[in-house]
Structure formats: C-alpha cells, structure tokens
C-alpha cells in the first residue's frame, strides 16, 4: 500500500521522526524550518526592452507601487548606462524584478549581454516592446532559449492602441477585433524573424485587470516549477476573482502545518506556553492574509487611487474586524471573542487528516483543531472581503 506520508516534504517527515523519538522541540523546529523555507523561496524576474517601452512602469505596476513611490523604478528616463537594477517586491522581498536596459542600448551581442546581466539567476525573462518586436528582441530570445531559460513577449501600452482605434473608428470600433489584430501582427512578425510558436501578451500597466495580463500569469504559473508557483501567486496583484480564490486555496493548504506546530507546542509541558505561541503565530499568519488579499491600508488606498473608487466606499464592503488592523495578540483575542460559535464550529475535516500523519496524541489534537478552525475562519472571512473589495473597485470586469 502507498504510504500517504510520502507526499509530505522532508522536514515534515523529520518532524514525525522527532515526535516518535519524544523530542517535541526538534519536531516543532522542523515544521518551522519548512514554513520559513516556503516564505523565502526566491523568484527572480528579468524585464528587458528598449528605452521607453514601459519596463519600469510594468515593474512598478506588478509590484503594486506608484511611480512616485521611493521604491519605484524610475520611469520616463533615458538610459545611458548598462547598470542592472534589482527592485524588491514591497510585500515579498524574496520576489525580485530586474529592470534591464534594452539590448539595443548596450551594443553588446546577445550572448555577452546575458553574461553581463548574470542570466543564470533569473527564473524567466519578459521581453517588452511598445510596438512590433524587432531583430534585437529575437536575437535575445534565441540566446535565452540556448541558455535553457524561458522568455515571454509582452506588448505594452495596449490601452493607447485601444484609445487611438476607438477615436479613429468611432462607430465601427470593436475592442476584441483590435486586440486580435495587434496580437496576430506581433505573432506574425516574430514568426517571420524565426521564433517558433511565439506567445505574445497584450498588457496595459495602468490596467492590469484588462487584456492579457491574467493569461500571462496563468502561463507563468503553468510553466514555473511547482515550488515557485505560490511565490508568484502571492506576489500577484488581485487582478481577477480567480487569483483571490487561488490565494485562498494556497493559504488554506498551509493551515495544517501551523495547526501541527500548535499541537506540538501544546505537548511541551510548560504552562501557558501553548496559548502564547499560538496567538503570536496566528497574528503573523493572519497578517500575511491581509497582505496577500490587499486588505491593508496602503493597498486599499492605492486601489482607490488607481480605480477612482473612493477609499471610504471600499471600506464599506469590508466586514472582517481584522482587515486594516495593525495586528497584535490583543486585537486577535478580541476578534476571536466575537466569533460566532456556529461559524467557529465549522468542521476541520481536511486538517484532521494530518493528525495521524504527524502521530500526535489526542490531547494535542485539541490544540490542532482550535488553531485550524481559527485560521480557517479568518481566512474565509478575509477572502470574502477581498472578493467584495474587488467587485466594488473593478465591477465584474475581467479580461477583455
Ligand atoms: P522604460 O524606459 O522601458 O522603463 O519605460 P517607462 O516605464 O519609463 O515608460 C515610458 C513612458 O511610457 C512613460 O511615460 C510611461 O508612463 C509610459 N507607459 C508605460 N507603460 C504604459 C502603459 O501600459 N500604458 C500607457 N498608456 N503608457 C505607458
């Protein structure tokens, strides 16, 4: 018979071993090591294209940063150097974007260019152009392929094209037709330059929720190695309902590890240790939910700014007492005391399957269940808030 335990990461297997050896401190350390490792998986994204193609604006938009922000990549500048600049994601510093000068500005041949920027470190390359892709873009793509790295073509400033077309065609204007035409034109150009089955994504950095940005995320997610998929997902802005749902599922899948940790700590014979550790841990986990769902003050203010929906109108649809809070143990305890007992007693079936895997005794499983239910409760509540905020800010619009 298959051992269901095989599907768990090495640290969890070692955690089980430590429990069997009656060493709860080592077991807890193993789970913590696993969770810490998940948080620090690096994702390095190279963004390259000619000056003015919209690289910096794209890097800022995907990181959820305004161009005026201190952490923003400078936009509208003329490049004169071959400096490569890393820009950290403000919420997930393990996710780094590199704004690389266009190959045409550097006079390096493609292979030397890649060597100079240190291509090995990148998970993938995004090649941006504000019109058709050119010989230089293709030379670079070929060289990236030779290095066994992935690349994606992004055709930027698509909102400009749509506006221009609308202005000139007036009554016969059809957004979908225009997009199809531009996409096809880019693909044909790349085919002619020798790129096989090119994929082109039409993007406006001012409206990531429109056009092909969702499709770009889906493609990246599909093609990234499994252990990096969630890293990308959490760093993504909430540009559609599906992303919010996927973030919720990814957070949900982690809860059993936090609950397992809480069960093991409950087994350590130090009075009140368990409650103190549980509360501190849950504060950190729920703070991650707030960041991931964009339910912190600065994310909501930015959303109000970019969509034109007043900040106060966004606040109206938020129900969780934890949204917008600077979380600490007191705030969490207060919220727990207001939890409706019916909702709180939701089944924790999925999580309870993890109890025999760890082999924790019945008494400790009480702590497991309490943590599992509390985290699941607040996760559900905050994910629902995120969906309502999305609907309020962007209507039901998804990609065109
Ligand atoms: P870079 O030199 O490639 O980094 O290009 P920038 O990001 O500095 O962008 C050059 C100009 O294009 C700036 O004025 C941006 O505001 C503008 N721009 C960039 N992306 C978009 C976009 O998606 N839509 C529109 N309308 N303008 C954009």
From TrEMBL:
Keywords: GTP-binding, Hydrolase, Nucleotide-binding. Residues 41-223 form the IRG-type G domain. The keyword Ribosomal protein does not apply. GO terms for molecular function: GTP binding; hydrolase activity. Pfam families: IIGP. The keyword Protein transport does not apply. Belongs to the TRAFAC class dynamin-like GTPase superfamily. IRG family. This is IRG-type G domain-containing protein. The gene is IRGC.
């Amino acid at each position: 018979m298959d051992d269901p335990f095989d599907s768990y990461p090495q640290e969890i297997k070692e955690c089980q071993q430590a429990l069997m050896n009656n060493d709860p401190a080592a077991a807890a350390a193993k789970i913590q090591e696993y969770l810490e490792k998940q948080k620090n998986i690096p994702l390095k994204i190279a963004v390259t294209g000619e000056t003015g193609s919209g690289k910096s604006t794209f890097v800022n938009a995907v990181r959820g940063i305004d161009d005026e922000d201190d952490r923003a990549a400078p936009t509208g500048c003329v490049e004169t150097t071959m400096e490569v600049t890393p820009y950290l994601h403000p919420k997930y510093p393990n996710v780094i974007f590199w704004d690389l000068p266009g190959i045409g500005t550097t006079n390096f041949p493609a292979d030397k260019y890649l060597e100079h920027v240190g291509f090995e470190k990148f998970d993938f390359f995004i090649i941006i152009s504000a019109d058709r892709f050119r010989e230089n873009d293709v030379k670079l793509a070929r060289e990236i392929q030779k290095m066994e790295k992935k690349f994606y073509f992004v055709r930027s400033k698509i909102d400009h094209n749509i506006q221009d077309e609308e202005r000139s065609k007036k009554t016969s204007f059809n957004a979908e037709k225009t997009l199809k035409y531009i996409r096809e034109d880019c693909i044909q150009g790349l085919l002619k330059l020798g790129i096989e089955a090119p994929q082109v994504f039409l993007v406006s950095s001012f409206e990531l929720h429109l056009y092909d940005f969702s499709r770009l995320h889906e493609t990246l997610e599909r093609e990234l190695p499994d252990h990096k998929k969630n890293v990308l997902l959490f760093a993504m802005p909430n540009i559609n309902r599906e992303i919010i749902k996927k973030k919720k599922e990814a957070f949900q899948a982690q809860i059993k590890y936090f609950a397992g940790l809480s069960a093991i700590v409950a087994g350590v014979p130090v009075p009140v240790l368990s409650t103190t550790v549980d509360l501190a841990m849950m504060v950190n986990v729920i703070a991650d939910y707030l960041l991931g769902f964009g339910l912190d003050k600065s994310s909501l203010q930015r959303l109000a700014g970019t969509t034109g929906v007043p900040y106060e109108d966004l606040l109206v649809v938020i129900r969780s007492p934890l949204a917008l809070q600077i979380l600490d143990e007191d705030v969490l305890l207060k919220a727990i005391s207001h939890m409706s007992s019916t909702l709180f007693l939701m089944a924790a079936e999925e999580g309870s399957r993890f109890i025999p895997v760890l082999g924790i005794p019945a008494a400790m499983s009480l702590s497991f269940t309490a943590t599992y239910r509390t985290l699941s409760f607040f996760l559900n509540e905050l994910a629902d808030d995120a969906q309502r905020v999305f609907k309020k800010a962007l209507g039901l619009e998804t990609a065109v």
